[in-house]
Structures are given as structure tokens and as C-alpha cells.
UniProtKB/TrEMBL annotation:
UniProt name for this protein: Glycosyltransferase
Limits of the Galactofuranosyltransferase GlfT2 N-terminal domain: 49-162
Family statement: Belongs to the glycosyltransferase 2 family.
Pathway: Cell wall biogenesis; cell wall polysaccharide biosynthesis
Amino acid sequence: MDATTVTTAGADTDTGPGAERDLLLQRTLFSGPRKWVNDDLYSRLTRGVARRSRGEVHLEAGAIVDTNTYFGRFEASYWQRWTHVTDLMVRVSIESAGRVDVLVRASDIGSHVRTVDLVHHDGDGMAVLHVPVDTFTDGGAMWLEVHAVDAAATVSEVEWATTTTRPVRRAAVAICTFNRADDCAATVDSLASDPLVADLIDDLYVTDQGTDLVETREEFAHAADEFGDRLHYLRQPNLGGAGGFSRGMFEATAPGAPGPVDVLLMDDDVRVEPETVLRLFAFAAVTREPMLVGAQMLYLYNPDYLLVSAERTALAELKGGLDADEFALRDESVVENLQERRIDAEYNAWWSCLIPGEAVEKVGLPMPYFFQWDDIEYGLRCRQAGMPTCTLQGAAVWHADFYWKDGDDFGQFFSQRNSLVTASIRQGIDPKDMAKNLARTVLRAVAAMQYGLAATRLRGIEAFLDGPDGAFGVGDGGQRALAAIREERAGYPETAKLGVEALPAGITVERKVGIPREDREDQVLAKRLLVQKLGRQRRGVVAIPYEDAAWWHVALFDEVYVTDASQTGVHHRKVDPARAAELQKRLAALLARFVREAPAAQDRWRRAQAELTTRENWARLYGI
């Protein structure tokens, strides 16, 4: 059978219900989609001479190439755990005047390697290998090894496929953007650049919430020509990421829309590996039950590096983005390290995450959080309703490295409020224990002379207590809160980013020395605040690099210039005893209120969620 007859997950087909059809699960590509991507993420030359390009590799006689790489592997453990797939066909197109050996190799959780099938192929033609997916429950993957034995060879059109009787699912992609027109246009054009992937997408929703419109960009016009009436360009008020992504889900799952459907949410500023889109839709097409399927995040500025294998939360501490497993890779090169163990996720961030339409039918649309924690809350909600998340190894997009983003911004209001709401709805909170946690986070900001950050977090706590209909609630999708928080933060000078030229000439750089023991951090915090109150901290202005700007180090000084995480400027912080005292007084009163009112606030948010996540509420916010 010619490889081109294999259908993709969302492609149109005349196959009737219950009929068997071929399904393309992934392709083997030998190099990246752009020059800045390391080709070793796709294939490796282990002997001799070979030339790699996107869809093929040319081997000189005697050369060996394998695809035991991040994008080159078939992550069998994930497919065995979550899907109906039990066996595969691997098709390899070969051009050679001699013999070519093609092996499917496999690993286990201990990185032991075995051969599961091989062919000795002579001349031009198609080599077909058959491999089971049956011994990978806890970990392991499969990949190709190709040996040009006695003559040069070109290998291309490598496809991993299976047969299925599952019905074809509609494939939709939803992207939201706010004044990132160039980035968004490039992302949409990347989807159009791969003909197979472009054909796979039945509907592409681009929700533009800004004033610098994506539709004015040449790349977007090119993509629009490719997608035709499958591209839906939507305009609406700025409702944040939650509002933009929800709009795509809202449209794709509208009453009367053909189904079943999978909706792939994707950030506007990612750099897309089109193959990832194919793999996510193919995986979702054969899961045993509807589930969320997420891509991993590779760093944009360090393209070989993985953020984390999969993520979980600690709701009692209002923390997300934690390693899902002690064996999960984090901040490591996936050229040098490969994850053999299967790591199960609690949720997947929405830089790229597929949502089955059944999830919307069962649990509703996302919360109108504006942004921050909307992806976490929705993933947890689906998980508790019996629809877990798989963060699929070998499927990834490149996204701006998180450590280049400064944590002192208006987003801290939404993070504080929304994490409290999420913890209340999904798990429940202990008011006294949570009050201690909140006190710690606010006081650390005060000690570090981040008075605007402390005030922003206080507003987040107040907004939680005031409930969904409060002045800083979610009734308008977050627009009122956004404007108010930005205005309030403007009154705190240290929140402003200054140019590097603001650094005084000859200023001393002070790096952190020693790290407080975790069980002593509260005592250290109390000591730093007392020293500031008494005015006994070190005098004289100093510079502190971002990497050294831990609260317990910054608090040793009375005036500092701290580098912004973006490395594009600095923040000037100076001890202000009056402001510190005012914030601490406000915190004490608010925490007393929190202990009294948190149970009632928790109940209000829980009762409100059912209405907040309806189509009717979102339609009101969209203005339709």
C-alpha cells in the first residue's frame, strides 16, 4: 500500500461507521522546521556520512542513522496506557542500488534497548515493518535505525500508522491574540506551511482581542488563502486568554456543529512544530475515553531544553507548574536526555492543549478568569469528571522561556484571586492554614521592597472574598479589574522598569550568599522585617542581578536596583517605612477577615461556577 493512502485523524473520509480505516499516527522527520532548531532533536548520525533534510535522509554507503531522539521516537508507553492502539505498521520509502537494513528498536524504563522488527531491503521500494505496542506500560519508546549496507540510500516518507474502526473526529484549532499580530500571523502561517497538517484542520478559529489586527499581516493573508472558509477570524473585547480560548471552544462545539470534535488550543506566540498538531489529533482520535491531550513546552531561546515532562498542582499552597513526578525532566536538554518513564500529568498548560468536545458537553466552558489558572482549573475540573490529561512526550511547541518573565506585574492579581478560587472549587481550603500561606507571600514582597506587588496580592485576596460579583470579580470577564490594578500599580515607583542607564556609575553588584533552611524561612522573614522597621539594614545603593534577587537577600539592603527578568532594564527599590507599615496593617485586617469570611466566599464561588461556565454567560461576555 502506498504511504499516501493513510488518512490523518481529522481528514475527510467516506468510511462508514464501524468500518476499518488506516490512521496516520506520526511521521518520522529528519530535521526541524527552521534553521534555529537542532536537527539532533529529530535524527542522529551514528556512523558514516549522511545528509538530513525535513522529510528525508541521504546515507552514503556504510552509514547508520537512527531516530532515538525527542521528535524521532514513537512514545509507545503513552499510546499503550491511554489508547486503543495495540500494533503498528511502519512504512519506509527507500531508494538505493544496494541493501538497506531497517530496524525498529525499542527501550524500556531502564533504557535497555531491543529490536522488535527488522527488514533487509534491496533496491527501490517500500519497506513495511509490523510492531506490537504491548510491553510499555510504565515506560519506553520505539524508533528507527537505518543502515545503508553496501550502497548509498535515500530514506523518506516514514509513517507510523495503525488501523481503527473509531469514527472520524473533526479537528479544530483555536488561537487567541492581543496585540501580538506578527507572532500570531507567523503561528497561523506555520500551520499552513505543512500541507498534510493544513488539510487535517477542519476549522481554525483566530480570536483577535486587540487593536493591532492580525488580519493586516501578509503572513496571515497567505494562511487565509490556504485555509479558505475553514479560517474563522473573530473580533471581540479583550477578555484575556480565558476569553480568547473559550471563544474557539464555544464556536467549535456550537449546537448543530458536526461532531465529534477536538479543539486544539494554542498560544499566539508559540513557534509551531506542525508535526505536533498531527500527533495530538491522532492520539485523541484513538483514546479509550475522551481526554485532554497536551503538548510539552520547549524553550524558544534554548530550543533543545524542555520546561517539564508534565505538571501538577499543590492547591493547599496555591502552586501550579510543579513536577508531576520525581522522575520528570525539568530545564534539561532533550538532545542529551530522554524521558523513558511515562509521566502522568494533572493538567496541561494552554500553550498547546487539545480539549475534546465531550469535555465542554460534560463540564462546560472555562471560568472567565481573564488569565492565569484558567488552564489549571479546567484541567482539574475535567480530571475530576473522569477525563484526565495526557502530556504527550514527543509533541511540543517552542514558547518564550518562563525565566525571562518578571513576576512583579498585574498578572499577580489574577494569579492570587484565581488560585484561591480554583483551590476553593476543586479541593476546598482551610482558612487558617491558607491565611498563614497568604501572609507569607505578601510579607516576603514587603521585605523585598516590592510594595506594589504586595498591594496587588492583597487586591487578589480581597477579590476572592468579595465573590464573583464584587468590584474585582469576573462578571465582566476581568476588564474592570485589569484597568483598576494597572492604575493602582502605577502609584508604586518600583513597579516601573527603568533603562539600564538608570544604574549609577560604579555601583556595587551584590550576589546572594547562602540559602536559608526551608524550616527557618519564617524566622528569617520576621528578622528581615524587624531590621527594616528599626532601620538597621545595610546603607548605600547596590545592584542585584535577577538570579540573585531572592527576597531574603534583597531585604538586607535599604536601596537596590534589581535587574528585570527580561534583561532589558532594572527596577529601583527603596525602603519606605510608612508604606511597609501601611501594607502590614492592611494585611493583618484582611487576614482576620479572610479567616471569618473564606468559608462563605468559597461557597459563593462554588455555586456560581455552573452559571459562569455556561454558553449563555460567555455569549454575554462576547457581546453576541
